[in-house]
Amino acid sequence: MRLTDSQRLIIYYFNSVSNGFSICGCLFICGMYLKFIELRTFPFRLIFVLSIFDIFSSIGYMLPTFDLYDDDALCQIQGAVINMFTLASALWAGIIAFSLYYIIVKSNFYIQSYMRYFIIGVFTLSIIVTIIPFTSRTYGTVAGWCWIKQDGSYDISFYERYILFFVPMWLLVIINGVLYMKVSKCLKNSDDPDGARSELNRKLKFYPMILIICFLPYTIKSSLEFKNESFTIRHDFELTIVVGTIRGMHGFLNAFVYGFTKKVRNALNARVAANDTEISIMLPASENDPKSFIKEMK
């Protein structure tokens, strides 16, 4: 059953609230990075870039397309923006996992010099994946927003939706999980005099969980829609609200779990205490010290 315009409007309001939270959380991380010199280190630069991707992804979801049709320009723009920056965010989460693995497990700090190449690679791949549905004209209205359409047949839109998005997404979840297990094992087997390794180890399990929490409901709903399950058809409105709201919190969860570190909290406390002079002269920690890197991330 096709959603009515009023139902799509309600879905848009729910999406706007959750994505608004995400934008606020990501702007907080970006503001902290730009404000405090001591946060301009490699770990927080990774988180800063992740926040930028999440901001644009959330902006894409907040575009008002609830009353538009497939061929409307804004609908096409929303589909492209969502596709590009959601995938870029997921890929960058993989870059963070890869960096943690190389620095903590392999003690290889040369990876920091590849930052610009990571950004170029993620952008290039995301742009390619975004352009393909444009060439096949498969962007259009889906549930409460615009993205790659799905009509229940094994056509070009099916392969674009699953092979270009869902399959890479879940491969990244698996890869991230494997890398974080290796990092966790290394942290457990290392000396931990100040408890920093234990703190980071406790956080590690939340990193891959963000992707699972935000995209598993959407993946399940998309699969059920493809199979034309009667439950999904009858409750499409309610399910879309739940799925869209959870998906919209992706940026907020990233900002909270990745970005709200102890060092960020200390910087905020110092600001509240009006220790401006002390903050302004603090320098970033050494980026070639595993202990410093671990403290940055915990």
TrEMBL record:
The keyword DNA-binding does not apply. InterPro entries: GCR1-cAMP_receptor, GPCR_2-like_7TM, GPCR_GCR1_put, GPCR_Rhodpsn_7TM. The chain crosses the membrane at residues 12-34, 46-64, 84-105, 117-135, 162-183, 204-220, 240-261. It is found in: Membrane. GO terms for cellular component: plasma membrane. Residues 25-258 form the G-protein coupled receptors family 1 profile domain. Residues 11-262 form the G-protein coupled receptors family 2 profile domain. GO terms for molecular function: G protein-coupled receptor activity. Keywords: G-protein coupled receptor, Membrane, Receptor, Transducer, Transmembrane, Transmembrane helix. One of its GO terms (biological process) is cell surface receptor signaling pathway. It is a multi-pass membrane protein. It comes from the Eukaryota. PANTHER family: G PROTEIN-COUPLED RECEPTOR 157-RELATED, TRANSMEMBRANE PROTEIN 116. This is G-protein coupled receptors family 2 profile 2 domain-containing protein. It comes from Stentor coeruleus.
